[in-house]
Design brief:
about 140 residues; Immunoglobulin-like; 2 helices
Length: about 140
């Protein structure tokens, strides 16, 4: 951010330091080489429940090594949760078996999914502080494969 300082007969521009935060998303247990990974960042239970992320990105799998892939997301400070799904058939959506059981891989930040219920936002959320680089692990789970 620039600040303008007015001094009679002189105009000075000064630079204020800008804080930067980064989320390093490390996705593990990727079982398919086809399709893409969809990464969604949520900032509340409401945004997660309504499936309206504050940020989303799509990752190709060409840089995948040993079933793992990482990406860095510059982001503002705050409380967030990340959900990832493996869109193996590249149709742009999560596919389900009966009773809304996912048929593609899925996972959440620093949370090991168990059973068939989705977690609550509080279960997979984390705090990103000012000038912090935070690494979050997402372990994909595949049901029925």
């Amino acid at each position: 951010m620039r600040h303008i300082i007015l001094v009679p007969g002189l105009l000075l521009l000064t630079m204020q330091s800008v804080s930067t935060q980064t989320i390093r998303v490390h996705v593990e247990n990727i079982r398919t080489v086809t399709g893409k990974l969809y990464v969604a960042v949520f900032d509340s239970q409401e945004s997660f429940k309504t499936e309206k992320p504050v940020f989303e990105t799509v990752l190709g799998k060409s840089d995948m090594t040993g079933g793992a892939l990482s990406c860095d997301i510059p982001f503002r400070k705050g409380l967030f949760g990340i959900a990832v799904y493996d869109d193996a058939n590249a149709n742009g959506k999560m596919d389900y078996y009966y009773f809304r059981i996912p048929s593609e891989g899925f996972g959440f930040s620093n949370y090991l999914s168990k059973g068939f219920n989705s977690p609550q936002y509080k279960d997979f959320s984390f705090t990103l502080d000012e000038n912090e680089s935070k690494k979050v692990r997402v372990l994909l789970r595949y049901i029925g494969k």
